[in-house]
Design brief:
single chain, alpha/beta, Rossmann fold, two-stranded parallel sheet, 43% helix
Length: 361
């Protein structure tokens, strides 16, 4: 649309748009660990769509083959041919070395997530999240990988008293999972300073979106609640519902990973950055948002109320990110807020349900 002066109105190119253009022009080779997981499969989809070559590792402990199948259906066969999958565990150093061979960028997502899981099994959580992480650092160093971007977590802030968490906020970890993420950040910093490996940590805040597993005892809150509400099952809230989180749609996480891998700024190296929306939603508010959306197709949810249970050990009361550092250093700009992300997530859940109802050919 023309302006009053007769010039064409143009939107400035964002950092992410510029990064995507650069990658299309000059494709690179990437390694995504945890590639069959929720976040890993979204990274795979974006990279293949951009014409990149991708190596993926997963052992299917928490990742799902159906996530890879979904990506393969969405991506043209010519681009899908750029993907090489290695099934295995990052606790195997030889596999890590093999996967890093000739790789430009590592996006390390593989981990045993979930605070409750780590409380139930701290030894295995440490083995995967710390020993596996160290194996990947060594392999990346030995293969002279250009940059190592890894998933950290807002759980590192623990009992920090700040209403909004900046990267400098203090706090003690409240779970074995949180402790493993603190150790990851320490190790990444040591490898940056001792070996010159260019590491960047991204502290994710409550990521949600399509392909997030709703089943199992350690399922994340949004898919778990969606599943329960649709099936007329109880929705449990631990505490009185005033507990709040900075929920972040998965497309924002994908953006941050690619920006971190490609940022030309030297000051991003050996840093950890908050990746979130920079807003806060209470669990009571989240329940109302989901209820309002589901009521259109599932009238039975209209009068449902959550069941309140005692607060769980290891959980934190409030979590909200200061994302200014990622904005300034990476050009990170969230494209989806919570409401938009919930709409897209619900659309995906409906499409999956409809596909399951179709008769087999």
């Amino acid at each position: 649309m023309g302006t009053c002066s007769g010039t064409n109105e143009k939107h400035p190119v964002t950092s992410f748009e510029e990064t995507r253009r650069e990658l299309i022009a000059v494709p690179r080779k990437w390694l995504v660990t945890g590639v069959a997981g929720f976040i890993g499969s979204h990274l795979l989809e974006e990279l293949l769509e951009l014409g990149q070559r991708v190596i993926g590792i997963d052992d299917f402990v928490t990742g799902q083959r159906r996530n890879l199948d979904e990506v393969s259906r969405k991506i043209p066969s010519k681009k899908w041919a750029g993907f090489t999958f290695l099934e295995g565990d990052i606790c195997d150093p030889a596999l890590c070395r093999q996967a890093c061979d000739g790789v430009d960028y590592v996006l390390h997502q593989a981990a045993l997530g979930s605070v409750p899981r780590s409380i139930d099994d701290p030894v295995r959580t440490n083995e995967v999240n710390v020993t596996g992480f160290l194996n990947m650092l060594v392999a990346a160093r030995d293969n002279k990988v250009q940059r190592f971007v890894y998933a950290s977590s807002s759980s590192v802030y623990g009992d920090a008293s700040s209403a909004v968490n900046a990267e400098t906020s203090g706090g003690r970890p409240l779970s074995p999972y949180a402790a493993t993420k603190v150790i990851n950040e320490l190790y990444a910093g040591v490898f940056a300073r001792s070996y010159g490996l260019k590491t960047i940590g991204l502290r994710y805040f409550n990521v949600f979106g399509p392909r997030q597993d709703p089943s199992g005892p350690y399922a994340a809150v949004i898919p778990k609640w969606l599943n329960a509400m649709q099936n007329n099952e109880p929705v449990h809230i631990y505490g009185n519902g005033s507990t709040s989180r900075d929920f972040c749609y998965v497309a924002n996480i994908v953006q941050a990973n690619l920006l971190a891998a490609r940022s030309p700024k030297a000051e991003v190296i050996d840093r950890v950055l908050n990746i979130a929306n920079g807003s806060r939603t209470s669990l009571n508010e989240l329940f109302a948002m989901l209820q309002r959306r589901l009521a259109i197709c599932c009238p039975h949810v209209t009068h449902r109320r959550p069941e309140y249970l005692p607060f769980r050990p290891g959980d934190i009361l409030h979590s909200q990110a200061d994302i200014s550092l990622a904005q300034n250093l990476l050009g990170y700009a969230p494209t989806h807020d919570v409401e938009q992300g919930l709409d897209l997530t619900l659309q995906w859940h409906k499409s999956v349900a409809q596909a399951q109802e179709l008769p087999a050919k």
